[in-house]
Amino acid sequence: xxxxxxxxxxxxxxxxxxxxxxxxxxxxxxxxxxxxxxxxxxxxxxxxxxxxxxxxxxxxxxxxxxxxxxxxxxxxxxxxxxxxxxxxxxxxxxxxxxxxxxxxxxxxxxxxxxxxxxxxxxxxxxxxxxxxxxxxxxxxxxxxxxxxxxxxxxxxxxxxxxxxxxxxxxxxxxxxxxxxxxxxxxxxxxxxxxxxxxxxxxxxxxx
Length: 207
Fold this sequence. Notes:
Number of strands: 10
Order of helices and strands: EHEEHEHHEEHEHEEE
Largest sheet: 10 strands, mixed
CATH topology: DHBP synthase
Strand order of the largest sheet: 1-8-2-3-7-4-6-5-9-10
CATH architecture: Alpha-Beta Complex
Structural class: alpha/beta
Radius of gyration: 16 Å
CATH class: Alpha Beta
Strand content: 15-25%
Number of domains: 1
Mean pLDDT: 94
Shape: globular
Helix content: 25-40%
Low-confidence stretches: none
Number of helices: 6
């Protein structure tokens, strides 16, 4: 049975953020709000927690996992980014985008796309997510919570509780959100930036 935290959407309670991070560090899988619906998250180094997320989402090996980052200071540690790409990100983050890059050796192999060796990078614009990342002190392995067979991100934490309370360790109620996922921008080829998925983020700066 998962824990269920009611967190203020604008002023997240420090005590609850500390407890959430403790759950993550002990191998827990969490559901938390972002600026594009709810997401699943776990510690980047926890293989079992990642496998639980894969089971919930019924992923194939082709899926691109995402590192949820506080800001761009962590970008070069995990992704191969040229100056032009960095400038684009600087002008468009935080926001509802997931950027796909070639991963560095710092990214656990199990998080990289099996064929392309890519990783998603995300800098969110949500007070709860940012408070969680600040408390964690490192990126969070993350993926949008889209249930198998669904086309949109989960937006209602009460519905999520009904579906997943026996499969995750914590659900953070941060309000009722939109159903669109992030806009995914593939930046693996600096000469051919393309939109891989249209979502909440305005695609115009990348087209």
